[in-house]
Amino acid sequence: MEVVICESPERIGALAADAITALVAATPTAVLGLATGSSPMSTYAELARRCSSGELSLAGVTAFLLDEYVGLPPGHPQSYRRVIDRELVAHVDLDPARVHAPDGDASDLPAAAAAYERAIAAAGGVDLQLLGVGADGHIGFNEPGSSLASRTRIKSLTDRTRADNARFFGGDPQAVPRHCLTQGIGTIMAARHIVLLAMGPGKAPAVRQLVEGSVTAMCPASTLQLHPHVSVLIDESAAAHLQLASYYRQTYAAKPAWQGL
Ligand code: GLP
Q1: Which candidate, 221, 101, 199, places its Cα nearest to that of 152?
Q2: pLDDT tens digits for 64-111?
Q3: Cα–Cα nearest to 46, from 87, 79, 83
Q4: 206-254 tens-digit pLDDT
Q5: Of 6, 20, 150, 221, which residue is 20 to 30 A from 33 by alpha carbon distance?
Q6: Which residues contact 31 (CB under 8 A, 6 or more apart)?
Q7: Rg (CA), the chain
Q8: 95 classed as catalytic
Q9: What is d(CA 182, CA 252) in angstroms, rounded to the nearest whole number?
Q10: Which of 46, 68, 143, 164 is catalytic?
Q11: Which pTM value belongs to this model?
């Protein structure tokens, strides 16, 4: 893992956008894994800026979302497909037809999950996966206790995640769907490069556990320690519990590995 401690969310967004820009320069038809939530917003803002200035084109890129709620009516503003359209697709030259999300409205959810796995495989797998992390260490919607080998499937959300996400549903945890379709931990681990973004003091315990704790299903993000190429881009407050923070600063701050370290 390379752990890059940044001075601001904007710096995190710039570094993540650098990784995507380098990937797309080398492979214009690259496959991106996209995350929703607040953590990738500075990355999406920077991608939008680069696309509108002509520095970057995502026209040849295919994208797969990590997860989707089950049971929201089609077009619900908080469905992750709608969120990514609003936050990213509308501001860049990604072809909406090449942006995929699990079908949380399918009548046969296991079949939809299997179809999603097949679609990712048919696209050649994910080159770069953007990830946030839940305060409890979840990635995608793989809650604590998830199988570390899991693939896309139905999951039930914990009360904590529903409370955390209530802010998007008028503050009411009961309005947050109980179930979702999410890429599994095994699915996420198959991406060739994983870029995890975390900011704010609320993420400090999860960041400590995922970077320096034991690999355990109780912190699904800790599985990333077994991946050969993970970049953890965090701000100072999310880094606050890390024992080796000064080592990470010396090693990674100036020159992240994807820039040739
Ligand atoms: C949700 C999403 C995750 C996301 C997490 C953290 O539960 N399913 O993909 O990483 O929240 O969100 P945020 O970035 O808003 O803190």
Answers
A1: 101
A2: 999 999 999 878 999 999 999 999 999 999 999 999 999 999 999 999
A3: 87
A4: 999 999 999 999 999 999 999 999 999 999 999 999 999 999 998 876 5
A5: 6
A6: 61, 62, 63, 64, 120, 123, 124, 125, 126, 127, 128
A7: 17
A8: no
A9: 31
A10: 143
A11: 0.95
